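Hi R.,

As promised, here are both runs. First protein below:
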Amino acid sequence: MAFDFIVMRPDTDLGLFQLMRKKPIQYMNRLFKPSESILSPGFPKYWTYNVPKEERGFYQKVDLLHGKHVLKNSLWKYYHGNNACTFSIEECYEAFENLSIDLGQNALNFEIDHVEVGVYFHEDFDLIPRLKAAYKNSLFDAMKKSKSREIYGWHLQLTQFEIKIYDVAKKNILAKDVSYVRPGSYRFEIKYFDRNFLRKHGVKKGADLFDMESPIYSHWRQVTGGINFRLFPQLSPDMKTSDIKNIMLYYSDAYSEFNRVLKQKGGGKTDLARVNESVKKSRALLNPKINLNELLLKELNLNLLLSEKKGT
């Protein structure tokens, strides 16, 4: 378990940026550049710090129009350079410490407006094409790069959070990211983007993320355990076409309706028997290799149990 993309707000005196000038301002060990657009008093609408390509820092924006200063980046990538690896809760804490030194302020005191809580895992087979998922009867949607047909993951957008599971290597390839990612690298995340929801679940500041009894982790477990993951079978090329059709029907969303309609008609027993016979013959091939719910919950619990930062 660790934190990927995160949005934080330091307690910044915005009056320091209410200046009628076009020169950069030095703040938190960074040079903030003014926007071209200005507010009616004559000072810039916002000031920004853009991270140089050779650095792993946080993008920053002091928004005078909306009265806030935000920092955005993947904490995972800030620490490791990529997010296709394990990232322990101890390393997360160290990342906050490094950021505090980097910026000259205690990042654990920054307010949290958005955080992705996730786990990394590795499997030696192509998971995403064989996977379907649903949460509270809502099916996950495919994750695709714009104008591409290739699916690299599945996600479900809800009102207060989003659930995602995806192939990191495929995502990078589609994004033309040249950094190497080990094939079979997968990420599962719950993205919490509702500020009020985070507050109700015990997260206001960075330090709250290291309270291992925080309600946010109870929520993460509840949601993850309640997802219906279905893995379609890996079928042998030597299998009869009729058996393949029957098995795919059995595993499809249409099977329950197919079953209901045939029973309603009072016939179709032979058709159902054929489907069940195909499934029975191939049962050894059809058993899923992994239980995703157990795997993901185990990864989270392992990190929380091993943490020494409880109640920090």
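And here is the second one, sequence first, then its structure tokens:
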Amino acid sequence: MKKVLCTNNEGYEMEFVVGEEYEVEKELDTTYILINKLGNKHSVFKKDFEPVEDGGKQA
């Protein structure tokens, strides 16, 4: 599953930590649907996250 890295936690202090990776359930034009560490889904703006460079491809 694709992951993204939190780059700005403005407004997400309770749910996301800057520098941590989160799983992407769905990618839309301007937002990601993410799953946080508690297993909760959130819609977040892409500007607050960046793609994680994945060394290996998953099938």
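A quick note on the second one: Residues 12 and 44 are 9 Å apart (CA to CA). Let me know what you think.

Best,
J.
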